[in-house]
Amino acid sequence: MSIFSQRISQGGQGYRVAVKDTIDVQGLPTIAGCQALEDALPAQENADVVNAALNAGCQLVGKTNLHELAYGMTGVNHWAGTPVNYHYPDLIPGGSSSGSAVAVAAGEADFSIGTDTGGSVRVPAACCGVYGLKPTFGRVSRRGVLPAETTLDCVGIFATSAKMLKTAMQVIDPSFEPTVLPKTIRLGRVDVAADPLISDTIDAFLSRLKYDTTPVVLSSFSDAFTAGMVVINAETWRACGDLLETGKVGEDVALRLANAANTTDDQLREAEVVRERFTKQVDEALQQVSVLVLPTLPAFPMSLADALAGKTDLSISALVRPFNLSGHPALSVPLQTADNRPVGLQLVGRKGEDEMLCELACVLSEFLPQQNNNSVEY
Q1: In this structure, what DSSP letter does residue 91 have?
Q2: Which one of 3.90.1300.10, 3.30.365.10, 2.40.50.100, 3.50.50.60 gives the CATH number of domain 4-365?
Q3: Which residue range or ranges hold the Amidase domain (predicted)?
């Protein structure tokens, strides 16, 4: 099946929850889809988000597979296993939280927990046709999550409905309180480069809504993507670079890690300048509109066959990674083209307004057409 690295049956009789295998569950090793960590000692205690789920009466059903070390976007993992995209089995599941996305799409969990450092919740959510939320940076506790130190990574969630996404946030974030949307909502349509069919699908959906839409230009958007790559490379090298010495890191991740070792202090300093500039641009844009809207993916997901043959695609994160750099909450809503290909609508809100973003997703879900797909049998 390849969804789960480890099956679990812990907790109460409430919502079934799957947890990405970068998140500690007491008594189980955190392997992160990497053979170099297969002999890791069992975690001494639960991550905070796991405790929150258990305290809410949820049932843990398993730890999910992922792109090795959460350092890739296809979701392919030759050692641990590649979760098959439930609704679109010929396409990649997306990474890095591939198993967490597939678990909810396949009905193996009511909601799942993943992590998002450069789009690793929103990309697989869009690829797999489910909802995915990256909260405001720092809002959800990362204690007990790999890597321990980061300026980008957020614990996020997947669900098959916006309502369940909101419920899941109430479980893992004690400060989350459902809200009511303001009477006036103005959408800011961000000008980005994307496949014309994706853009047309997004715009056709927006045209059905009752909200005013205004164009938004973020001049540092592409710079923010590049800067986000610099920061994730530096931070992942610091956290995982020593694993290269084992010779047990998969080829694609090993090559990327080796290149990450060459990240310079000057590149990092420039990335922080871009972070400050881009964050200011997003904040200013969100003073004029209620939420930013744009595609989650710039292109359709590649075929699973191409990915298994070794093809990679970091550019699939081009429209999501900038908001890891800025720290704003971002949510992917599943859409579909007329010929049944997955499209994600990304919503980006003001920092700390995760509740409003989830509530808006609930409203938008009422306008979604019935989706048709050919699901894989598990």
Answers
A1: B
A2: 3.90.1300.10
A3: 17-173, 255-358
Domain ranges of the chain: 4-365
Model pLDDT for residues 106-148, shown as the tens digit of each residue = 999 999 999 999 999 999 999 999 999 999 999 999 999 999 9
| Residue 213, SS3 per DSSP | strand
Task: Give the chain's radius of gyration (CA, Å).
Answer: 19
Q: Is 0.85 topped by the overall pTM?
A: yes
278, 314, 14, 63: which is closest to 167 by C-alpha?
A: 14
DSSP codes, 20-49: ETTB--BTS---TT-GGGTTPPPBSS--HH
pLDDT, one tens digit per residue, over 160-194 is 999 999 999 999 999 999 999 999 999 999 999 99
Catalytic residue among 96, 97, 100, 332: 96
Question: Among the options 5, 97, 112, 120, which is catalytic?
Answer: 120
Q: How many C-beta neighbours within 10 Å does residue 177 have?
A: 9
CB 236 within 8 A of CB 257: yes
Cα angle, residue 238 at apex, residues 157 and 69 outer, rounded to 5°: 40
Burial class (CB within 10 angstroms; exposed 0-12, middle 13-18, buried 19+) of 152: buried
Cβ burial of 301 (10 Å; 0-12, 13-18, 19+) is: buried
Q: Respond yes or no: is residue 100 known to be catalytic.
A: no
Q: Is 20 a catalytic residue?
A: yes
For the chain, residues with pLDDT lower than 70 are: 1, 370-378
Looking from the CA of 2 toward its CB, the CA atoms found within 13 Å total: 20
Residues 6+ apart with CB under 8 A from 376: 84, 85, 86, 89
